[in-house]
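Model it.
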Amino acid sequence: MVRITRRGTLSLLGAGTVASFTLPARGNSAPDADLIVIGAGLSGLHAARLAAAAGMKTIVLEAATRAGGRVLTLDDVPGKPNAGASQVGAGYLRLRILAASLGIELASDTGEARETALSVDGKLLRSTAWAGSSANPFPASLKAVTPGSLLFRLAGAANPLRTTDDWRGPAGRNADIAARSFLMAQGLGEEGLRLVDIGLNANALASYSMINVWRTLVLFREDAALGPPGGIRGGAQRLTDALATSTPDLRLGSAVASIETTASHVEVTLADRRRLRAPFALCTLPFSVLRKLPITGTPLAQRAAIDAMPYTQIAHVYFEPASRFWETDGLPPDTWTDGPLERVFAVRDRETGQPNGLLLAWLNGDGAAWIRGKSDSAIADVIARELPKARPAAQGRVRVVRTVRWTDENPLAGGAYMHYAPDQVAAWTDTLAAPAGRLHFAGEHLSRVATGMEGALESADAAIAAILDLSPGMMRRVKKSGY
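Modeled.
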């Protein structure tokens, strides 16, 4: 089992359990639980497990009919690809301990680099030919760098951050500038900026703070020093499935309509008008969803952050082409293009690593807008028209197998993950995770050190530690148990 101390540090829990407890009733009605967790994604499920291990009676509310949130493995798609939350870094200590405690196996990643074909301005070429291409608009010193890697290449050489916590201090605040401004200072013109914007894992260069890039690079560097990344055997959702199975009171299909927080309790009203009450509540919803809910008692600065935090819009379209065109033109199946399909990846067999015939169009940020409101058949028509422009050998109809929308069209996600816009770090870092009365917050968007799945676990650790700290009777029981 996993334990948490008042400082939020994870370690292995020895034998023994913590006696259950119930806080005294507040007002005229008894509480329904000691803690209400809103959202059954990775952060919410982990928080519920920690709370239950501390003896708290916990209810977990999830609007969807499945648990896991943005941790999603497409078991009905050949190859069973992860459509959200896939990589397990070597430094993901919390996740590795949690997986081991649940009997979840981790898979290694060879880290093998795969070549990508480029299709820019109607010209199809290998990435090795990019430096000499007439479609290459980059400055002479950057001609050999492909559009998809240029931002990180330049950022790595100018990273002002040295540690994983620097982004929250003076170094981070001074570096909180737009990626577009940074690239312009490196000599990129409008056409170069357009190309870099295409594969950006954010909405747009102008609204994306460089602090996101530099923070990521520090984490990558420290992770790489520990070893190669890996994954979860069978898909990332195996982890949240196991957590959900071990969650005593998980209520799927329970959408929250409003949250009221007071000095003594939190009351949650569900969409069906039922009400639940507890001394504490922990909300793990992404701000892109939370901003749509009425919440009483939220400080103005925190409300501003909830309302304005950017979330990267991402759409995944898995489709079957008419033929394996890459075997005809002799180029790699993966394609980076300046057309509407942006990046196309071969879906690979989980065991062999070989292409299984399916392709994934990965649409990012503003580039994901064209699928809005479109059915799978309408999307297939666009792909059948646009793919041959990038890969002339790809003629014929295509069949869309699955579309995953991590966009504002998805009311339970609103986006794939958060990112800071310029000038938001200094304004919000101290207010994002602050509790509103007895309502606490957690989620990957609130992590201080890690990102991704590890960040989701980190924030849950911190939130549960804070809730236990505010419950003196609970802390006495925890200490007495040696927990």
